[in-house]
């Protein structure tokens, strides 16, 4: 894999609560220079103008996932109407820990139905889940119509992405869904390890320094 190929797998991400409009515009400029697939921002930064070829993603129910489904659906509808290409939503992690995967599925489906034409990535917060819970969350995501399953918000104290979680998620969804690794990926070695484990998209805030380690 060369630098250009890796860049096209990256959602160049800015989700710090203190990020400003100036920061978001700088993110877009840097993403265009780096050649990343998309930028991923908070809902308050949407709508956000992006150049042709650079996709726009925003998070939903972020970072806790503990919002009522109606609130997540309203947020997703707003994002879709504001022109995002992709939504990264957080599951109800508490429901997953309680084994209530029918509720997890219903929560995801509410977002899917609110934004039917937008690519949907489902953040399962894998570091907070057991292996069995990761598998169940991935299956619920697929049943609900998700396009991707995603490891982490990067905000949970349990940690971010791991190659073990990515491998397990890939085995669970096969080639039917994408797998996004996100959270704590700070080096080129980390990024490539996630790709080797089965990730087809990477959520990175350190995109520039990671890509600087790659050859064209």
Structural account:
This protein has 216 residues and is of the alpha/beta class. The protein contains 9 helices and 8 strands. It has helices at residues 3-7, 21-34, 69-81, 93-97, 101-114, 131-143, 163-173, 188-197, 207-212; strands at residues 10-14, 38-41, 55-60, 86-90, 119-123, 148-150, 178-182, 201-204. The protein has an 8-stranded parallel β-barrel with strand order 1-2-3-4-5-6-7-8, surrounded by 6 helices. Helix 8 (188-197) links the parallel strand 7 (178-182) and strand 8. Helix 7 packs parallel to helix 8. The longest helix is centred in the first third of the chain and has 14 residues, at 21-34. The protein is globular and about 45 Å long. The relative contact order is 0.16. The mean pLDDT is 97.
């Amino acid at each position: 894999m060369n630098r250009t190929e890796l860049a096209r797998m990256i959602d160049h991400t800015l989700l710090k609560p203190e990020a400003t409009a100036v920061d978001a515009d700088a993110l877009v400029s840097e993403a265009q220079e780096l050649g990343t697939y998309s930028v991923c921002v908070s809902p308050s930064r949407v709508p956000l103008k992006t150049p042709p070829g650079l996709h726009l993603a925003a998070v939903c129910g972020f970072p806790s996932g503990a919002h009522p489904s109606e609130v997540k659906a309203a947020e997703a509808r707003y994002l879709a109407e504001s022109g995002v290409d992709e939504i990264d939503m957080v599951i109800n992690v508490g429901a997953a820990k309680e084994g209530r995967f029918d509720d997890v599925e219903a929560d995801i489906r509410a977002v899917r139905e609110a934004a039917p034409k937008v690519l949907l990535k489902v953040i399962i917060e894998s570091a907070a889940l057991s292996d069995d819970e990761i598998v169940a969350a991935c299956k619920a995501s697929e049943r609900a119509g998700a396009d991707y399953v995603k490891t982490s918000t990067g905000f949970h104290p349990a940690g971010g992405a791991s190659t073990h979680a990515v491998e397990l998620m890939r085995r669970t969804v096969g080639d039917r869904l994408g797998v996004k690794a996100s959270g704590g990926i700070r080096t080129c070695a980390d990024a490539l390890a996630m790709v080797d484990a089965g990730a087809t998209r990477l959520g990175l805030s350190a995109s520039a320094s990671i890509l600087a380690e790659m050859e064209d």
